[in-house]
Specification:
The protein has 129 residues and is α+β, with helices and mostly antiparallel strands. It has a single domain (14-121), classed as Alpha-Beta Complex (Ribosomal Protein L22, Chain A). The protein is 29% helix and 35% strand. Helix 2 packs antiparallel against helix 3. It holds the Pfam family Ribosomal_L22. Belongs to the universal ribosomal protein uL22 family. One of its GO terms (molecular function) is rRNA binding.
Length: 129
């Protein structure tokens, strides 16, 4: 006696993974998300492996999670996957205070972000003759 299963939000050929509350500004995280958007997953993983950005390791783990979700939960073929969406959302901003000159105070903002990666299975391209 449970409630009925919720209808799936994504199409049958898509899977997603979400990274929440990561301590980086959305602007910096979006630079890395933009780097993998629209690429095949093998290329995107290689780009993230050799990226010099600090956050690239966590983005790579999230992409690997999306690939595993596609393979294990939705029976999609890993070789035909592309990163169809990679978008960043804003989360909370922690505010800290630092003393400044003449008894004043300066605000330091420490932003958090969310990252959502959606992978889609595309049909293999026919070999051109």
């Amino acid at each position: 006696m449970g409630k009925p299963a919720a209808k799936r939000a994504l199409p049958e050929n898509e899977a997603k993974a979400v990274l929440r509350m990561v301590r980086i500004s959305p602007q910096k995280l979006n630079l890395v998300a933009q780097m993998i958007r629209g690429k095949k997953v093998e290329t995107a993983l290689a780009d993230l492996t050799f990226s010099r950005k600090r956050i690239a390791g966590q983005v790579k783990k999230t992409l690997e999670s999306a690939i595993a979700n596609a393979e294990n939960n939705h029976d999609l073929d890993v070789d035909d996957l592309i990163v169809s969406e990679a978008f960043v959302g804003k989360s909370i901003v922690m505010r800290r205070f630092s003393p400044r000159a003449r008894g004043r105070v300066g605000t330091i903002q420490k932003p958090f972000s969310h990252l959502t990666i959606v992978v889609r299975q595309v049909e293999a391209q026919a070999a051109k003759a």
